[in-house]
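Okay, can you check this protein?
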Amino acid sequence: MSTSADNDIVSLNFRYRNAGNKNILFVIEISKDKTVSDLEEEVRKKLGAINRNDFLCQIYPEEKPMRTEDRIFSYFNETPDEDRIHIRILP
């Protein structure tokens, strides 16, 4: 994860293990002011249809589901460390 100079846009690195047990890696740039549901829409554009709701889960620093109504910035501190933020896409 990284942020732009104005700290509004974050670049999130994702890894998803598909049904063929292959890793799919991709990056999404999105405003921290958007909601998790907006982030889910962007993930679906990259991966295609996923048959479940609430499929994003923050796994570090604390494992917890990412609720669709939350703003993205609520999952990151003021100075995010790209090596310390991990998001899992649930199968």
Remarks:
- The helical segments are 36-47.
- The first strand starts at residue 2 and ends at 3.
